[in-house]
Amino acid sequence: MPRTHQRTCSLCEAMCGIVVTVDDDEQVTSIRGDEDDPFSRGHVCPKAVALQDIHTDPDRLRHPVRRTPDGWEELGWEEALDLAAERLQAVQAEHGTASVGIYLGNPNAHNLGPQLFGSLLIRALRTPNRFSATSVDQLPHQFVQYHVLGHQLLFPVPDVERTDHFLVLGANPLQSNGSLMSAGGIKDRLRELRARGGRVVVVDPRRTATAEWADEHHPIRPGHDVLLLLAMVHVLVDEDLVAPGRLSAFTDGLDTIADLVADWSPERVADRIGWEAEEVRRVTRAFAAADSAVAYGRIGTSTQAFGAVSTWLLLVLNVLTGNLDRAGGAMFTTPAVDAVLPWRTGGPARWHSRVRSLPEFGGELPVAVLGEEMLTSGEGQIRGMVTMAGNPVLSTPNGRQLDDGFAGLDAHVAIDIHINETTRHADVILPPTTGLEVEHYDLTFNLLAVRNVADWSDPCFEVGDDRRTESDIIRGLARRLASDERPWDESDPLHVAPPSALVDAGLRDGPHDLTLDDLRAAPAGIDLGPLEPRLPDRLFTDDHRIHLAPDVLVDDLERVAAWFAAGDGDDASDGPGPLALIGRRHLRDNNSWLHNAERLVRGRPRCTVLVHPDDAASRDLTDGEDVRVWSRVGEVVLPVEVSDEVMVGVASIPHGYGHGRDGVELAVAARHAGVSINDLTDDRLVDELTGNAAFNGTPVHVEPAG
What we know:
- The protein has 706 residues and is an alpha/beta fold.
- Helix content is 29%, strand content 16%.
- It contains 23 helices and 26 strands.
- A hairpin with an 8-residue loop joins strand 1 and strand 2 (17-22).
């Protein structure tokens, strides 16, 4: 008999409920949105069907392999784990513990095993050279949250279900279904916002799907959001619009903020951001006048030279208008399993990278330094790597440099299901079960949900003894790497208990009096209600107060002032000046790892460089023809798409492509290879305060390919 499974889609942050139908031959016959899911309410995007494609992908590894002079060779699991541990231990024995690094990719946040057990592998390696996708994404958010609210995982979430005014900077939620804002079916929620008289205002260099749909779209020069936000805070102070309400009773630094923005008037910054001064004032007044409002920024504001300060000023906007921790503003979740734990806080940098001395935060170094740490000889050089569900060659800046770094390693162990642009360099690849084969609970994204929910997913398929889950692989490798300093303890539940038991324990300790049996009895999920005020009790600062003007962020305004004073000069090259490069995403894309699903890459090619008609005319570019795009670190050739979708002075290339490298075994992706935007982005361009990659605004030149 065919059977159905109600699950949560684990491919992105949206946490959409799906119904998976499996026939008598153990084949998936349909994946559709779950109308009974209280969170996503039947919504599903095209990516959900890719769960079936991943499950049946002929290029997906199902057994461990090792690289040999004659190609890849299959291994048994015990032999593969032994070999992986031996290779890593040999490097550390010769060169020290710091000689092996670890990189954790974005999918780890979407999978229960790495979330529960990833720390075991990190501890077993005992290395300071730890990296993840955090520092090409949301590191500024975590940095600001630690310094202002006391914990890096205390994310303010836009209460889009009740807000009257949604101000969006550098984000495209209609394509992402939210980012640091889990909201399956976000378009329906925004329709409801407008139906009750609310407004959506988008600030973005590109007319994105969200900007096209919004009530207002205001283009802004890439990397200049900090100036707009300083001017908006100035208007709040200058026009006596500051009204923090109940927040004033436990907020320090309100007067300091007023002093800091005194000189940053709209008139001063208008030319630099490309706005009229009065428009800045109008947008600010509308935000302050709304019954409830929330300012929200994402990749466009965080992955730039002033990512931390821009993220901080968004939080300041919400505090000064009383829109933090109130209905319709930026609120905090009450997750059924609370991962915001006192011992998981960040803190001042405890170490720095060897070559460039960029700071650690939360136990990780910025991945922008990974290439140089592998390629620069000397004591502490990274000579071995573990990569887990990550493809940094395509997803981090200066990918060609990283490609060279991985090619020269003495040892590389990958936990991954594909031979991709990064894992092709591995000595051993350990492929886990994934997607429909594993149990699932969203530990991370329930911290970011626009509504409190809880949902457990049992596997759709039984897995044979010749397969391993990520939990099995991580524990198996960590046990082999254990040392006298950090021994393996068979009595420790984290070392031996199944994931379901740990989730059950977390539910029982949580605020909603739930058990795993309760979730299994409600396969569509349980609605735990709207977001509720949590402050000041939820604060993790020592005094349980909001530190709105921490010295580390205040001091970084000096860097903003110096940059502003220096102006925006072009370089001295002949011809038209450089364009500011930005990324973009498509609803059918998911970073670099869904391009091997045929149904998701059909249609006209998406890997093009967008340029404005004026910029095309000044550079003799013809729509549809190949062009050469080059930066300090590299060059690519791809078709140009001439469109006023981007503002003058901007070029846009989607991220996640570049599958044409030798040795990649992704047949469908190779037919839609495209180019990697990270062969252009510069590892030297970072937010100096955090080390986060400053992708947005990378200077590039665009010229006819001939």
